Hints:
With 482 residues, the protein is mainly α. It has helices at 7-22, 26-51, 73-96, 103-122, 126-144, 150-181, 200-217, 226-229, 235-244, 246-262, 264-270, 272-293, 297-317, 321-352, 363-366, 368-382, 388-402, 407-432, 447-465, 468-481, and strands at residues 55-60, 66-70. A two-stranded antiparallel ribbon has the order 1-2.
Amino acid sequence: MNYLILLPVFLPFLAAIIVPIMKFKEKERNFFVGTAVIINLIIVMGIFYALGEGEIHLFKLNEFIDVFFKIDKLGILFTSLVSILWVLTSFYSMEYMKHEGKENKFFTFFIITLGVTVGIGFSGNLFTLYIFYEFLTLVTFPLVIHTESKEALESGKKYLAYSFGGATFILLGMILLFSMTNNLNFQPHGVVRAVSTDNFNLYLGIFISMFIGFGVKAALVPFHSWLPSAMVAPTPVSSLLHAVAVVKSGVFSLIRMCYYIFGVDVIKELKGNIYMIVPIIITILLGSFIAIKQENLKKRLAYSTVSQLGYILLGIVLLNKNAFIGALLHLINHAVIKITLFFVVGSIMYTTGKKNISEINGMGRRMPVTMWCFTIASISLIGIPPTNGFVSKWFLAQGGLTAGKIIFPAALLLSAVLTALYLFPVVTAAFFRNGDYENTAAKEPPKKMLISIVIITIVVVILGLFPNPIIYFIEEIASEVI
């Protein structure tokens, strides 16, 4: 029965191979891709219902080289989020990619990335996570350079350099850690035991090395610049990078490393989290400050992502229950909010070709439904009650107060003000400024794109109005590790 765990990891690989081989016509390919991601979602949910929690060793050479999959509550949370958002992104992409071209190539790597990301969620040990984490870089690289322009190729080089550079820090830490513990399996409270004066500095070095390594994909300043550069990719790719696959895999891996390898008590003893507080606060504030100055819509959202990821990282390193709950809530909430914002920006680019804020004056009259969805998502990202963004930031602020430092909620509050300063001008330009679109008839994006935008916006609203079921589930995860 546990072999079912492998299905949602490797089924997308099989589907991705079929796409270029079969040479589908557009409608056939879209039907195949849509069916594949929906079936994968059904399998994921079926496994969670049937197995609850399970594990399987796919290949084991020794205690270090062990490809090990395990389902636990954290993996269920992450993989469910990925699988659901992948379906919406798939249908959005079917329309959007028409004007980007090379659609078969795009959907081939798009589906493979789903399997790799599920593999990260199901990884039962650090070695398996590392393998899929590296593979994620390789399969998203063709998506980043999809247009094959000079700018795209340069961005791709930067993406590889940063990702493989971070992976080097991870690998170094993983090897040293195994030499100390002989165990890389994920388990609540971690596998590190008996920190002493003899190994204190080594454990601290391992923690910082791995935090920086995983922090690269989580856009930790100063290792963040690959993310805005990757905005040259098509908008569905931007959605994957910023909302679903890459940056959230970085955050998810940091949670695994902190709470399932080192453990809260060991990190507190090492004071490893203290060393990361300053770069995280800088990440939160610098991302917001730079976002305000960006005229390009996608670049503004990119730096917004840098800032918002800092919220999650802060929740991780505060090492208390409220902060941890806030971090996992914001992992989910930021994903659905940011994918909504990118979908809207992509729709503007698709229907009008406009990319800058100064070019969308009056856009709310042309695309009222689309821009209202942007407005709702913006209010949620700022954290105005009773939105989902408010719920997660409330827990993060409580976690900061629990840690005994007023600076943490103060930084969150300042960042919320800055978030309003870089998002509300877009809303103001669309609805309250006169421009090229003030007297045009309403013309929304094509149905597949608009329906995806409306559905994900409804999810944003529901998560704000009815957060308790997810909060209860996250509290169960928190009780296991803290």
